[in-house]
Amino acid sequence: MVDFLVVENLSKNFGGFAALSAVSFKLERGEILGLVGPNGAGKTTLFNIITGFLRPSGGSIHFQGRDITHLSPHEIARMGIVRTFQLNKIFLHLTVEENIRIGCYLHEKGGPRRFFFGAPSEEKEYLDEKVRKIIHLIGFEGFKKKMAEDLPYGDQKLLSIGISLGAEPTLLLLDEPFAGMNPVETGRCVSLLRRIMEQGTTLFLVDHNMRAVMGFCDRIMVLNFGKKIAEGKPAEIRENPEVITSYLGSIKVA
Amino acid sequence: MFPQILLNGLFSSSIYCQVALGLTLILGVMDIADFAQGGLYMLGAFVAFLIAKSWGSSFLFAICVAILAASAVGIINNIIVYQPALKRGANSLIAALGILLVIQNLALLVFGPDYQTFQLRFGQAKIEIFGGTITLYKSIIVLESCLLVLGVWLFLQRTKIGKAIRAVSQNKEGAAIVGIGSRKVSVFTFGVGSALVGLTGALVSPIYAFDVHFGTDVIVKAFTISIFGGLGSTLGTIVGALVIGIGENIIAGYISTEYSNLMTFVLLILILFVRPQGIFGRRPI
Amino acid sequence: MKSGRGSLLFSLLLTAIFCVLPLIFTSNLIQHLLVIIGITVILVLSLDMILGHAGLISLGHAGFMGLGAYTCVLLVMKYKMPFLVSLLSGAGFAGLLGGLIGYPSLRLRGHYFVIVTFICGIIFTLFFTNLVSITKGPMGIPGIPSPQITIVPGWSISFKSKAAYYYLVLAFIFLTIYVKHQLYHSRMGKALLAIREDEDLGRSLGINTHAYKVGIFMISTAFAGLAGGLYAHYIRFIGPDSFTMLHSFYFFVMNLIGGSGTIAGPVIGALLLTVIDELSQLLQPALARILFGVFLILVILYMPKGIMGLKTLWVSQMKGE
Question: Chain B closest CA to C111's CA: distance in Å?
Answer without folding.
Answer: 8
